[in-house]
Specification:
Chain A is mainly alpha-helical and 129 residues long. Helix content of chain A is 40%, strand content 3%. Chain A has one domain: Cytochrome Bc1 Complex, Chain D, domain 2 (Orthogonal Bundle). Chain A contains five helices and two strands; from the N terminus they run H-H-E-E-H-H-H. Chain A has a two-stranded antiparallel ribbon with strand order 1-2. Chain B has 532 residues and is α+β, with helices and mostly antiparallel strands. Chain B has three domains: 210 residues, FAD/NAD(P)-binding domain (3-Layer(bba) Sandwich), CATH 3.50.50.60; 168 residues, Polyamine Oxidase, Chain A, domain 2 (Alpha-Beta Complex), CATH 3.90.660.10; 91 residues, de novo design (two linked rop proteins), CATH 1.20.1440.240. Chain B contains 17 helices and 24 strands. The chains are: A mainly alpha (129), B alpha+beta (532). At the A-B interface, helix 2, strand 1 and strand 2 of A face helix 10, helix 13 and helix 14 of B.
């Protein structure tokens, strides 16, 4: 947990920290250091899929992940997160097996999704390119 | 995406193949594939000779690729029309000024509150001297340029864990690193340890060179004296009259520089794409898009969201929706189509192309990138720190602080680029914040380099490219592997459709790539039209 200690240090050093209170987390290197599914979703996925996971529409679309039947099989979201899909970047090089499993499990049990089976780090490992 | 690839080539595939092996365009294309990656292959204004006999071309997207195609094809005798999603020309060639509003995906709307005359370029912001196509169009379209300062020796390098978090001047890190390395090399040279690889004659010259290049003294030592101070700057600058003698400062020890990792930043001043001279348009990058629109604005239909692209033997039919009046889909028809829609969006559209091009369109993820512009009450970076233009680099999530390369030495307000993230975890993390929070974070982090932020900050705007409705990302992110497998298939003419844009170039995320890709696409298209 040395990384959260580091970001706490930034906040303590900065008198402006009061303006910037949030759950925001900044990883210290190329890879993500968020560990919980919720933290991973809030800091990464919602950038495109939005805080309510309902996606967005512009010239193109970010699909909604809420009440999403494509999450029925846990292998599918694992595959998409690890390998990317069309314009969605692959996250294999930026997340560990545990992190991918955590965020997929979070998605499959939130936003109107209620899939009881759990995805494991081993499931992620075999899906990697 | 392996369906159909094993079957016999379709007529369309064969046509594409013939188009690719015939004509000068093929030679040019091959050249760009063979390692001229960073140097533009532009060879002067395009010449499309031969009569297109009234053929029509529908162009999708009024960015630099689309408007280049419109300008040149119309000049060659084609009937052209452009469909553009936005209400303005330029695409990613874009500038935000005071009074501009921007609504990102998710619905957050920002109104830029900058003072009149101040701006940021959320997209491209600098033009290398060897991006010949961009520079030539700027010349032909009367876009005034001014220097973009990539290396300012007096800007800062900052490591949150280096030197107690105290920013260092680029001139000091650069000179001290160079000086210490020169001293080391001079030492082993004198000890005869390079005798096997350096001749006796070259050894003497090498020592002279190291002394000259590394600011070494007569004993080949790098230390605090007026020799090194002439390079790294003085502890007390030379003056006039009494007590005016200069005083040198103490160089930073090599070990400290190595451990600080600040040497990493020096490549930002060495890479070919960042070498001097770089340029920016006077008044904002969108001066280029506006200049193109002065030429072809009459054929642009704005607020048009493309929903489908179909083709058959006789022509192309594009279905689109007027976003201001979205009642019924509208159809546009033409003989040919130049499609510059980013692959992030094109990959979602029903598109009548062969399996190979479709697989290529689906193979390119889009880069995450964020820029934040901040307005301050005064140009404290100039007034307090003598930083005139250029870029400071930091390991904080904001990565860079870039100072305006215009309006130097004026009193009054100024706008700087308070964050520029490109890929890596922090770009995604910044994107996930609300615009107001991105600005707040940029101010918070930037204050570690410039404490004046705390009292001088006024307002800011933040653009996260994955939240930009017209691109859904910053630029196409090719790997060597995806290029090898898909790039040529992406660029081939498929029946009556050809793609263009930075994604169809070896200069990803550069405007030069967009224009060169467009020129190559229309050259090949024209050859085919004239032959049929």
């Amino acid at each position: 947990m040395k990384f959260s200690a580091a970001s706490t240090l930034f906040l303590l050093l900065s008198p402006l920290a009061a303006h910037a209170q949030s759950a925001a987390h900044f990883s210290p290197a190329y890879r993500f250091t968020e560990q919980s599914g919720e933290q991973l979703f809030v800091n990464i996925c919602q950038g495109c899929h939005m805080p309510d996971a309902r996606g967005a529409v512009g010239a193109g679309t970010y699909p909604s992940l809420a009440e999403n039947r494509n999450l029925l099989s846990g292998g599918y979201p694992v595959y998409v997160v690890v390998r990317g899909q069309r314009a969605m970047p692959p996250f294999a090089a930026m997340m560990s097996d545990d992190q991918v499993a955590a965020v997929v499990n979070y998605l499959r049990t939130h936003f109107g999704n209620d899939y009881k089976d759990v995805v494991t780090a081993e499931d992620v490992k075999v899906a990697r390119p | 995406m392996t369906d159909e690839t094993a079957s016999a080539p379709s007529r369309r595939d064969l046509l594409s193949l013939i188009g690719a092996v015939a004509g000068s365009a093929a030679a040019y294309h091959a050249m760009t594939c063979l390692g001229f990656a960073s140097e533009s292959g532009y060879r002067g204004p395009i010449k499309l000779e031969g009569d297109p006999k009234g053929a029509s071309v529908l162009i999708l997207g009024a960015g630099l690729a689309g408007m280049t195609a419109a300008l040149e094809l119309r000049k060659a005798g084609y009937k052209v029309q452009i469909l553009e999603f936005n209400s303005r020309p330029g695409g990613r060639n874009w500038t935000l000024r005071g009074g501009d509003t921007f609504t990102e995906l998710g619905g957050a709307t920002q109104t830029c509150e900058f003072e009149q005359g101040l701006y940021i370029n959320p997209g491209p912001w600098r033009i290398p001297y060897h991006h010949h196509a961009v520079l030539d169009y700027c010349k032909r379209l009367n876009v005034a340029l001014e220097p973009f300062i990539q290396l300012n020796h007096n800007a800062l390098l900052h490591g949150s864990k280096a030197f107690g978090g105290k920013p260092q001047r680029i001139r000091e890190i650069k000179t001290d690193f160079q000086g210490s390395v020169s001293e080391l090399l001079a030492k082993v040279t004198q000890q005869g340890k390079l005798d096997e690889t350096v001749s006796k004659e070259d050894k003497e010259i090498l020592l002279q060179a190291l002394k000259s290049w590394g600011a070494l003294d007569n004993n080949y030592a790098y230390k605090a004296n007026l020799i090194s101070a002439d390079f790294r700057g003085f502890a007390k600058d030379p003056g006039g009259g009494l007590n005016a003698a200069p005083k040198p400062g103490d160089p930073i020890a090599l070990s400290d520089i190595l451990k600080s990792r600040m040497w990493r930043y020096l490549q930002n001043f060495a890479l070919h794409e960042f070498q001097t001279t770089m340029f920016q348009p006077v008044g904002g990058m969108d001066m280029i898009g506006k200049a193109f629109a002065r030429e072809v604005g009459d054929v642009i239909r704005y607020d048009s969201r493309v929903t489908q692209v179909q083709q058959n033997d006789r022509g192309v039919t594009v279905t689109y929706i007027d976003t201001k009046n979205p009642a019924a889909p509208i159809e546009a028809k033409a003989d040919w189509c130049v499609c510059t829609i980013p692959l992030s969006i094109l990959s979602q559209l029903p598109l009548d192309v062969g399996a190979r091009m479709k697989a290529a369109i689906d193979a390119v993820p889009y880069v995450s990138s964020v820029k934040v512009g901040l307005q301050f009450k005064r140009r404290f970076w100039e007034e307090d720190e003598a930083i005139y233009g250029g870029i400071s680099y930091t390991d904080l999530p904001i990565r860079q602080i870039a100072y305006p390369n215009t309006g130097f030495n004026r009193s009054g307000r100024g706008v700087l680029l308070g964050a520029y993230l490109f890929e890596g975890a922090n770009a995604y993390e910044f994107t996930s914040l609300s615009p107001a929070e991105r600005v707040a974070r940029a101010v918070d982090y930037g204050a570690q380099l410039h404490p004046q932020y705390r009292s001088e900050f006024e307002n800011g705007v933040a653009v996260a490219w994955h939240r930009v409705p017209f691109t859904l990302g910053c630029a196409g992110n090719w790997t060597d592997q995806t290029r090898a497998e898909h790039y040529d298939n992406l660029c081939q003419i498929d029946g009556r459709i050809v793609l263009a844009g930075e994604h169809a170039s070896y200069l990803p995320a550069w405007q030069e790539g967009a224009i060169l890709s467009s020129l190559d696409a229309i050259t090949r298209l024209h050859e085919r039209v004239v032959k049929t």
